[in-house]
Amino acid sequence: MNWDLSQWCPLIDDRCFLQWLIKVPSEQEQLRARQISAQQINKIEELWKTNPDANLEDLEKPGVDDEPQPVGLKYEDAYQYQNIFAPLIKLEADYDKMMKESQSKDNLTVRWDIGLNKKQEDNELRLVPGDELRLRYSGDAAHPAWQSVGHVIKLTAQEEVALELRASQEVPVDVTHGLSVDFVWKSTSFDRMQTAMKTFAVDETSVSGYIYHHLLGHEVEMQMVRNTVPRRFGAPGLPELNASQVFAVKSVLQKPVNLIQGPPGKGKTVTSAAIVYHMAKQGQGQVLVCAPSNVAVDQLAEKISVTGLKVVRLCAKSREAVSSPVEHLTLHYQVRHLDTSEKSEQATEG
After folding, report:
1. Model-level pTM?
2. Angle between helices 268-281 and 243-254 (to 10 degrees)
3. Of 8, 128, 289, 303, which has fewest CB within 10 angstroms of its CB?
4. Measuring CA to CA, which residue among 196, 161, 150, 103 is closest to residue 317?
5. Which interval of the chain is the signal sequence (predicted)?
6. Beta-carbon neighbour count of residue 316 at 10 Å?
7. Domains, the chain, ranges and CATH?
């Protein structure tokens, strides 16, 4: 075989395969062929992602061609809002489930380390701490089939993945090759979204009237929050705010709904921490801070903590064993060290 790259030629010319590779059908053959549109081609290719054996007849089946209702800028009421967004969340959940479950890995090499906390390790997978996996072995003459579910607790520099398994009988610790891993999909976040929309639709007291109409895109008169505006908008332990950050903090403290936008690295986290600091100092109760990812929550918790506020970082049970830069702020850590803190205070007073 000639590997001289200068002699290589493209297989496609003018958006067509070369004739010596694929014969161009004659006019008579084209007349006998089944005519399909570009739209049908796109749909069958999309269907092949979930059903590799699908054919054009499958496109005619009920439900295949159903399109969700487009979202609007305004909605008549919460029921219409739910009827449009609920199917979209269902589609997103189905797609997320398909992507997770399609990432199964076979023929893995496994190293077993049993420590005092009976942690066991699995490697050769690129994952995120907190992910739930199912480790399984199909069995052989000396070992029965086995499987166990666990959570990823850390990633090592050697690209190993530490997996903490739940208690299981007859763990094949002498087997290090030929195991498989499946991603365990959880619908929790999608279930919460569906529940929130249902509550929004049936419970008029779930949100204030002002926020209700804002979410539905209705024109509402601007409301102002009765707060004491601080003289200084910065917060202890945080960098000084620039003019745009000061404006953002002032706006949030005076209005019930706000949107702060900006490119990465422009100080949105510092601004958010300053906002939380001043809201907490208003003395109207505790402040709940949410973010779309665990990393974002950790960063916010760390910034808010340096202002001197008491911060409690809530996390899922599955992430309690995952190392975090703000572990000392987590609820489970503070509960475990509650007795130690009380004894230290008593010793100091004594």
Report:
1. 0.67
2. 40
3. 8
4. 150
5. none
6. 12
7. 19-66 (no CATH), 103-183 (2.40.30.230), 224-349 (3.40.50.300)
